[in-house]
Amino acid sequence: MAARARLFVIGGDAAGMSAASQARRLRGPDELDITVVERGHHASYSACGIPYFVGGVVDDLGKLIARTPAEFRDRGIDLRLREEAVEIDLAGGRVRVRGVDGGGERWEPYDDLMVATGAVPARPRLPGADAKGVHGVQILDDGVAIRRLLEERAPRRAVVVGGGYIGLEMAEAMVRRGLEVSLVDAVDQPMRTLDPDMGAVVADAMRGLGIKLYLGEPVEGFDTGPDGHVSAVRTADRTLPAGLVVLGLGVRPESALARDAGIEIGPTGGIVTDRRMRTPAERVWAAGDCVETRHLVSGAPVAIALGTHANKQGRVAGINLGGGYATFPGVVGTAVSKICRVEVARTGLNEREAAAAGFETLSVTVESTTRAGYHPGATTMKTKLIAERRSGRLLGAQIVGEENAAKRIDGLAIALWNGMTVEQMTGLDLGYAPPFAPVWDPVLIAARKAADAVEADMRSGT
Q1: 238 backbone dihedrals φ, ψ, rounded to 5°
Q2: Which entry of 179, 229, 315, 460 is 20 to 30 Å from 402 by CA?
């Protein structure tokens, strides 16, 4: 009887468990041993749900966990929590593993290795950055720690450092908890993935919610009290009292383990893979926030940490590990976020990114309503489209609005994925009824205005 193959997976969240589960569907326990190590207390959970657990929207932590270790073991997947991989030996086909809470080290052999180490929050190298009460947000343990702090210390003030997606969502969580919230960012607008005009709409909406914004003010350090807990955030211009600090400075691929083993790392800091999620190292695969992928509009390598990408990449890797064939084509950078009533969405390239990719662009911004104007609950929203000059090809889109606004980005992402021009988009057959949209949906209005702009540019001959 042939020996069973051994698949070893490093990382037990979206990409790692998707790969393990898909491989198991295709190859039974008599053909393939699957072992997963995860250094945290939880696996197969929704990291995107952390702000909503912290804010009390989701009260039961268990609701964020898709499957328990026992459920995976019942399916023939040996999931081991609180164990971490500390070294990969490519030549020997083995991984050195140690217990996070003790228990020594051991070497685990593999025939195929899946690296799904995720991402780590950016942490500034500043005085006091390691103080108690200064938290990054990446794994479920981070959310548990922040919620415990809120319940045990009951701080009155929170400072969010950084205005990206996690910064906005954690600011909402603090507002829901009744804290006085300030947001500090070294750049001059929140949501730098938006263009400045759309970022300004987000900033105004945040101020309207009572959040104090201190933009263009780099943090210089964190003060602490006698117990070593953070007490304030310092910038060049002010000192902001804080009983809790949340770092929303973005994340970077957790690729150090792979780099140290000699696995190729790309310019984004993510692990390099092909379309099947294979690394250049023999029998080593990678997926999720630790890898870089191809942006389908710019053609450039990007590292975008989103659960949607991680699950798809993990599935692709798992199909290939199970003996099938699948590929991951790339991404267009679609993302949505929300802070209280304000919804924010984007896809494709913003103006700055389009210029860096070598495109000449035209942009239009339109204001419309989320429903028929006469229907109760109709609110305003802004839609921005970025198109290539001459060709009229859609390059990117952004939306800021309230209820029913953000998910319209999905239609724009589909148009972008399929290389549509804004003229072609004017004929899209979108759903209409007064509770859901005006008779001219905001997407169609924006497409029509963008098509007019492209035509006018062609006529001008500039």
Answers
A1: -165, 165
A2: 179
Please report where in the chains the tokens 């971490």 appear, as a residue. Answer: 84
Is pTM beyond 0.70 here? yes
Quick count: other Cβ atoms within 10 Å of Cβ 139? Answer: 22
Residue 111 is predicted with a pLDDT of 97
| Residues classed as catalytic | 48
The CA angle 256-125-356, to the nearest 5 degrees, is 70
| Torsion sign over Cα 321, 324, 330, 332 | negative
Determine contact, residues 140/61, Cβ cutoff 8 Å.
yes
Of 225, 249, 273, which residue is a domain's last?
Answer: 249
What distance in Å separates the CA atoms of residue 452 and residue 430, rounded to the nearest whole number? 20
C-alpha–C-alpha distance, residues 18 and 319, integer Å:
10
Closest CA relative to residue 47, chosen from 152, 166, 134 = 166
**152 and 52 in a common domain:** no
231 shares a domain with 127: yes
Range of the domain at 448: 341-455
The total number of structural domains that make up the chain: 3
Token pair of 318 as six digits: 């798992």
**Cβ atoms within 10 A of the Cβ of 86, count?**
12
The pLDDT confidence band at residue 461, using thresholds 50, 70 and 90, is confident
Q: Is residue 334 part of a domain?
A: no
Question: Is 76 within the bounds of a domain?
Answer: yes
Of the candidates 249, 281, 309, which is a domain's last residue? 249
Q: Which two tokens stand for residue 404?
A: 């029913």
On whether residue 390 sits in a domain, the answer given is yes
pLDDT-based confidence at residue 2 (cuts at 50, 70, 90): low
Residue 97, Cβ density class (10 Å: 0-12 exposed, 13-18 middle, ≥19 buried): buried
Sequence-separated (6 or more) residues with CB below 8 Å from residue 173? 51, 52, 54, 55, 56
